[in-house]
């Protein structure tokens, strides 16, 4: 080999590496475009409807949708903030009976879909439920005319159900904020005469306010996106308006316009949440601050603190699980129903495929962006988080209409080529559901992948590349073995969210196609909790696995410190 060939060989190797990195970068851009496509589709459909019914919506139903949505979001956000911050303050600052167990028990309502909590609360408090039966037997009342009992299926009832299911978002952030605060601030406040209430209002709450605001913003986003609770409680919101305008009025453009309004509200809440997180800091000395010493509460005070923490846990977890378990035990034949078996199989199939594809696409995109080493590709990554901020109903509108048009074109082309009609290959199968899940939960996998790549020392893949490994070879030989724990957690978290997703599944599923979530909703909507309870309990069981992972990640490190 000549000296000139020796000199050109490294250049060719560098050119090949640059070309490989370019391919990864292009792939990352295509994935980002696919994830952002439904959002862009909704915006385009909203501004280009086939039949513009916006003036009709503004004059009739839209004010009611907006009012109910705003009241629910603000009410749920405020109640969840009070409950979550109060519980976090008690857990972080005091020791009382059962405080160690309640530290992670307060997370368990995250495993309960809000719509399951709604069914359980109505069943528990309705006329034929155990509460009113006990009241009639205890006071000798013969009928509902003999006494007054508050209505359950109201806007206020929806606020209670949603807050009970969503307060852990506030609890997690607020508890971390309280624990990070230095003990010196509280000692100074005590020296100046502040009591327990003063410590909370004058020291703890101001320092933790950004965390509480961030959690409340997440709660409000989830409330705006909810469909199961509001539809069961007959509260007309923007999300139910999408279903009504599309399915009952047959106007996809009007549904897209309402979906666009939901997007605007959600993005405003995202901006608020980002602003709160940006401010989530305080300045301290270079030394590690001395943590706050938890004060022991004894006697009545201790048991009062225990009771206060047990209230949200009971409403958010014990009540739904207890009601569903009671109905499931009373109807054992529902466990062997063919419909339940099919729903379980559909759930495992769609959720499993979506989880694998979502995590694989996230790994590919994050790795492709990192290979370029440039700022421009990194600008794509925030856009892939839009799907998680968008409610499932909005994504369904943005996906189904373009996919239906593509389906018809594919079917027409296949018919022209072969003379046979293949039917609807995308919207006629579960493919649309899988795609919606990928877009909806891509941000979870992307965040996990980005954090995992950042923990790998750059010297390791550089050594692999110097030994002749390609970019793909370095990913397989170095990154993936070191990231397998994070990848497994991301797969599980995405799968759990897929299992719980209701509105996108209801709008995109083929005819007579059920998942555990849709079966629970449909049976419970018909007041048939006996058949709904097994599916609900299976959804809860899957959710508990994710909560266990969350508790392990958030509680174990704090105890280790």
From TrEMBL:
GO biological process annotation, one example: transmembrane transport
Pfam families named in the record: BPD_transp_1
Any single Gene Ontology cellular-component annotation:
plasma membrane
Task: List the transmembrane segments.
Answer: 21-47, 67-92, 104-122, 156-174, 254-272, 303-323, 343-367, 379-405, 425-453, 474-496, 535-555
Query: PROSITE patterns from the xrefs?
Result: ABC_TM1
Could you tell me the membrane topology recorded for this protein? Multi-pass membrane protein
**InterPro entries, sorted:** MetI-like, MetI-like_sf
Q: Does the keyword tRNA processing apply?
A: no
Ranges for the ABC transmembrane type-1 domain? 66-274, 344-550
- Name of this chain's protein: ABC transporter permease subunit
This chain's source organism reads: Frigidibacter albus
């Amino acid at each position: 080999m000549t000296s000139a060939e020796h000199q050109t060989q490294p250049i060719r190797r560098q050119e090949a590496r640059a070309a490989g990195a370019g391919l990864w970068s292009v792939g990352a851009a295509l994935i980002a475009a696919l994830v952002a496509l439904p959002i862009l589709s909704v915006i385009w459909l909203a501004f280009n409807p086939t039949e513009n019914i916006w003036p009709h919506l503004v004059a009739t139903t839209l004010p009611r949708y907006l009012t109910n949505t705003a009241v629910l979001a603000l009410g749920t956000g405020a109640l969840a903030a009070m409950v979550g911050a109060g519980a976090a303050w008690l857990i972080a600052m005091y020791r009382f009976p059962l405080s160690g167990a309640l530290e992670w028990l307060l997370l368990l309502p995250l495993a309960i879909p809000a719509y399951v909590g709604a069914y359980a609360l109505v069943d528990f408090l309705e006329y034929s439920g155990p509460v009113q039966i006990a009241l009639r037997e205890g006071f000798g009342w013969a009928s509902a005319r003999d006494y007054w009992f508050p209505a359950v299926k109201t806007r206020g009832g929806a606020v209670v159900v949603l807050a009970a299911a969503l307060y852990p978002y506030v609890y997690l952030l607020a508890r971390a904020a309280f624990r990070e605060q230095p003990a010196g601030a509280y000692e100074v406040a005590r020296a100046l005469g502040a009591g327990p209430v003063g410590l909370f209002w004058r020291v703890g709450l101001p320092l933790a306010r950004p965390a509480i605001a961030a959690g409340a913003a997440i709660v409000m986003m989830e409330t705006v996106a909810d469909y199961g609770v509001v539809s069961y409680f007959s509260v007309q919101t923007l999300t139910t308006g999408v279903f009504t305008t599309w399915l009952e009025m047959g106007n996809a453009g009007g549904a897209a316009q309402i979906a666009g309004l939901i997007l605007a509200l959600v993005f405003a809440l995202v901006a608020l949440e980002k602003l709160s997180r940006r401010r989530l800091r305080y300045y301290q000395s270079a030394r590690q601050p001395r943590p706050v010493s938890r004060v022991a509460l004894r006697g009545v005070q201790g048991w009062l603190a225990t009771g206060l923490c047990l209230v949200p846990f009971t409403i958010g977890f014990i009540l739904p699980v207890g009601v569903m378990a009671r109905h499931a035990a009373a109807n054992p034949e529902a466990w062997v129903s063919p419909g339940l078996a099919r729903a379980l199989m559909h759930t495992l199939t769609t959720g499993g495929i979506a989880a694998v594809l979502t995590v694989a696409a996230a790994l590919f995109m994050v790795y492709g962006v990192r290979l370029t080493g440039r700022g421009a590709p990194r600008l794509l990554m925030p856009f892939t988080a839009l799907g998680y901020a968008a409610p499932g109903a909005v994504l369904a509108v943005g996906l189904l209409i373009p996919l239906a048009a593509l389906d018809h074109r594919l079917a027409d082309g296949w018919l022209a080529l072969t003379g046979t009609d293949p039917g609807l290959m995308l919207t006629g199968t579960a493919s649309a559901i899988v795609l919606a899940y990928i877009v909806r939960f891509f941000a979870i996998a992307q965040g996990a992948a980005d954090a995992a790549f950042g923990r790998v020392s750059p010297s390791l893949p550089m050594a692999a590349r110097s030994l002749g490994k390609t970019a793909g070879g370095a990913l397989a030989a170095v990154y993936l073995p070191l990231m397998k724990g994070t990848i497994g957690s991301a797969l599980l978290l995405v799968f759990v969210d897929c299992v719980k997703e209701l509105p996108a599944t209801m709008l995109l599923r083929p005819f007579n196609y059920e998942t555990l979530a849709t079966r629970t909703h449909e049976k419970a909507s018909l007041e048939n909790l006996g058949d709904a309870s097994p599916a609900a309990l299976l959804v809860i069981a899957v959710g508990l696995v994710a909560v266990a992972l969350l508790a392990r990640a958030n509680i174990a490190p704090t105890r280790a410190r």
